[in-house]
Specification:
Its EC number is 5.1.3.2. Homodimer. It is an enzyme of class 5 (isomerase). 38% of the residues lie in helices and 16% in strands. With 330 residues, the protein is of the alpha/beta class. It has two domains: 195 residues, NAD(P)-binding Rossmann-like Domain (Rossmann fold, 3-Layer(aba) Sandwich); 107 residues, UDP-galactose 4-epimerase, domain 1 (Alpha-Beta Complex), CATH 3.90.25.10. The chain has a seven-stranded parallel β-sheet, with helices on both faces. It has a three-stranded mixed β-sheet with strand order 12-9-14. The protein has a two-stranded parallel ribbon with strand order 7-10. The longest helix is centred in the first third of the chain and has 21 residues.
């Protein structure tokens, strides 16, 4: 018998891929999205779209009254680190309040499973790499702080109400659906791989590399990239893990890649040069950020299918080349 899942932010990048993964395994999917950042065309075929804002508590209550959900998978959030440092109060207020009102609505409706798309930005500048679950939690941005407050609220929801939650902390979702049905379409785009691809395709000015004097092998920052389809699989796997209780997992590929390595991968895959210029460092950018996923692998059996950087870039290039206007092409 098919189970019904609520996916908030399911018209966005990661949320839409999770909604697709649920639908493909035969589950019923209800997407709740205000479409401020998501795209109607990104909602997978067969999923039901409810256009509403999480801040509208009456609309959210109506969704819970209309369906019997097995679990909530929560992706809807403000998510730009730089913007959060310009508007910290907005990020702390909106991300935290909306998420916890959603959790309260789930409790009132008798839902007992909640999966949070969290962030490895909880850890700020880490003491060791890769970052495991025992690393000190000290966010370096208002975005990270807002997610930490949500995680703490969910821990209380479990303690008091029995709402079991899984929080997945990861850095850089990348790539696109291998079958080409979904991709990455942010407005504005801030992620390195699509920016490098667009520069190679001549759609944007040269890519800016923010700093080349870091204490790394090639002087540029090293980051963790996880294929969005692998992320979706991780979210599905922790649904089963919640049968045993709440959990928190760091999620990474196990190896980081520098900005120059990403540029080289885009050039190999696309067969074109990536025009780029060197700019100043961005304030607060640590030299290396790589998350460990050893606990997740051990406890759920998750393993990435698209671990190689070229494979991640290849799916991103294919989708972006076919959709120069993003979802506006459909």
């Amino acid at each position: 018998m098919a189970r019904t899942y609520l996916v908030t932010g399911g018209a966005g990048y990661v949320g839409s891929h999770v909604a697709l993964a649920l639908a493909e395994r035969g589950d019923r999917v209800v997407v709740l999205d205000n479409l401020s950042q998501g795209h109607r065309a990104a909602v997978p075929e067969g999923a039901e779209l409810v256009v509403a804002d999480l801040a509208d508590r009456h609309a959210v209550a109506e969704v819970f009254a209309a369906y019997r959900f097995e679990a909530v998978l929560h992706f809807a959030a403000l998510s730009l680190v730089g913007e959060s440092m310009r508007e910290p109060l907005r990020y702390c207020a909106e991300n935290t309040a909306n998420s916890l009102w959603l959790a309260e609505a789930a409790v009132k409706a008798g839902v007992r499973k909640f999966v949070l798309s969290s962030t490895a930005a909880l850890f700020g500048a880490p003491d060791r790499i890769p970052i495991d679950e025992e690393a000190p939690v000290r966010p370096g941005s208002a975005y990270g702080e807002s997610k930490l407050m949500v995680e703490r609220g969910l821990a209380w929801a479990d303690r008091v109400h029995g709402l079991r939650s899984a929080c997945l902390r990861y850095f850089n979702a990348a790539g696109a659906d291998p079958a080409g049905r979904l991709g990455e379409d942010h407005r504005p785009e801030t992620h390195l791989i699509p920016l490098a691809i667009d520069a190679a395709l001549g759609r944007t000015p040269p890519l800016t590399v923010f700093g080349d004097d870091y204490p790394t092998p090639d002087g540029t920052c090293i980051r963790d990239y996880v294929h969005v389809t692998d992320l979706a699989e991780a979210h599905l796997r922790v649904l089963d893990r919640l049968e045993e209780g709440s959990c928190r997992y760091n999620l990474g590929n196990g190896a980081g890649h520098s900005v120059r390595e990403v540029i080289a991968a885009v050039e190999r895959v696309g067969g074109r040069k990536v025009p780029h210029v060197i700019g100043p460092r961005r304030p607060g950018d640590p030299p290396v950020l790589v998350a460990s996923s050893e606990r997740l692998r051990r406890e759920t059996g998750w393993t990435p299918r698209f671990a190689a950087l070229d494979d991640i870039v290849r799916t991103a290039w294919a989708w972006r080349e076919r959709h120069p206007g993003g979802y506006g092409d459909r």
